[in-house]
């Protein structure tokens, strides 16, 4: 009898489990039907069998040695040469060209068809204008001349001006300094260090302060490594010997070496950021020369694979290293050594910059372009006391907002227009054209005068390839007789008339008037759903509320941009609507569809989801009831 009872219990358990499976499967059946109403796309394999042909992607415009890449039908290739080649069978294949820092391309994606012959796709890269560059914010890490995570070691009699710290490593990983622990237990001192020594194992609050500083160091490294649109890519293939570097953002996909010297020329606000994917090798006796007021606290060396400074070297700048920093015997450094592993010294002099770091000044390119000099003739510009020379037509500086005096000279006795003047930087790159003319050449003024821009707005003109910008109403060029093409440069959302054209100078000066107007586009809202004559309101981003409206359409004029809106009605039977739209160079129609507020009912309107669940539950209960009745009947018959 006992065994029979156990069998009945097992049967009942199985029946209940089956019933729950029925309920679950009925719900999942509905969900499966509602979510699998379409077909997912499947990419074809990159290549198919058959005769293979070359698809060559040939680039122009990139700096020699710059890395670029192409993906053809899902297969990617990387190169530092001008050509990337795939081998494929007949067919049509999509491709994408990868982004290259500092360059744009109009052929970033497309498709190529192969039909019994090789195919070449030409890709043109265009260098982007330099972006503004600001110093890297070091946060509290800037309070340490040396900061490391795993250790700081010294051999010999080094001299350090400033604080040093290590975290999360303990104080035992600071060696060679003969440390003396302060009575507070919060820091140590050393005869080799003018500041204090901190470690993660010292008394509170030192551990938490160091944790913050190390976090700030890592954030600064990420910030420096993440800067985009470099002014220079793979300069000198990583060999900087003898170079003079103007302020800007520099990027290398390799290591960088300096075995002799490198000069950094700029003013006290100039900023250099060096992004180095490999290591930095600074040779024995190598040195950095600062010119024109350049400051070590505005020079940032972001290095991914470690820094090695040789014996007797002289180094300037903030080192942000992802690994170790090693400074050999007898070297001097004015700057900070911030390492995410260890720092090793050997009788070195390390001094923190004496000037507070400037972390606010945004920097913008200031470009001078000359016309009229024989090819290869040296000329120079002095801007804000910084002198740059060149034998090519362009010279570039980097400056924060402000107005700067300049002078221009050349190695010949040519006439120079303008030889002196001022240029204004106002939140974007600025340009100045320079004309050189022989002493016996007649020259004339070509003046462009604008009306319509708000006072103080920067605009400019490019005349036969030479650009000059200004914040005044007139741009002047000095030219000789000839025909010149021009293009007017105005801010986004403005248009100029004329915007382009050509003008001939023949024995007299020329003046052109330029009319500038704000470009706006009509956005027409059409209301549907409301009863005729119902009052409604429209509120668009950054605009006063429009209404009361009773007509079914309403039109506003807007410049390019993205906007959001809210539409509502005095009839509370209709929902309030929220939406977005964009204006991008043309008029925009926008439909506002009002719908009635519906009240849920309890006697009807059961959803299909609810129906599936109800049916499943009913079936399960019926099965359970039947099973229980059968078991009881069998027990009763016995």
Description:
With 638 residues, the protein is mostly beta strands. Among the domains are: 53-127, Immunoglobulins (Immunoglobulin-like); 139-351, no CATH class; 521-593, Immunoglobulin-like; 608-638. Helices cover 13% and strands 46% of the residues. Strands 9, 11, 12, 14, 15, 16, 17, 19, 22, 25, 27, 29 and 31 form a 13-stranded mixed beta sheet that branches. A hairpin with a 2-residue loop joins strand 2 and strand 3. Helix 1 runs antiparallel to helix 3 (608-637). The model is unreliable at 25-48 (pLDDT under 50).
Topology:
Blueprint: H1 2-35, E1 53-60, E2 68-72, E3 75-79, E4 83-88, E5 91-97, E6 103-105, E7 109-114, E8 119-127, E9 144-148, E10 151-155, E11 159-161, E12 163-166, E13 174-175, E14 180-181, E15 188-190, E16 193-199, H2 206-225, E17 232-233, E18 244-245, E19 248-252, E20 256-258, E21 261-265, E22 272-276, E23 280-282, E24 287-291, E25 299-303, E26 307-309, E27 314-321, E28 325-327, E29 332-339, E30 342-346, E31 349-351, E32 364-371, E33 379-383, E34 386-390, E35 394-399, E36 402-410, E37 415-417, E38 420-425, E39 430-437, E40 444-451, E41 459-463, E42 466-470, E43 474-479, E44 482-489, E45 494-497, E46 500-505, E47 510-518, E48 521-528, E49 536-540, E50 546-549, E51 553-558, E52 561-569, E53 577-583, E54 588-593, H3 608-637
Parallel strand pairs: 1-8, 9-12, 9-29, 10-13, 10-30, 11-31, 12-16, 17-19, 18-21, 19-22, 20-23, 21-24, 22-25, 23-26, 25-27, 26-28, 27-29, 28-30, 29-31, 32-39, 40-47, 48-54
Antiparallel strand pairs: 1-4, 2-3, 2-5, 5-7, 6-8, 14-15, 15-16, 32-35, 33-34, 33-36, 36-38, 37-39, 40-43, 41-42, 41-44, 44-46, 45-47, 48-51, 49-50, 49-52, 52-53
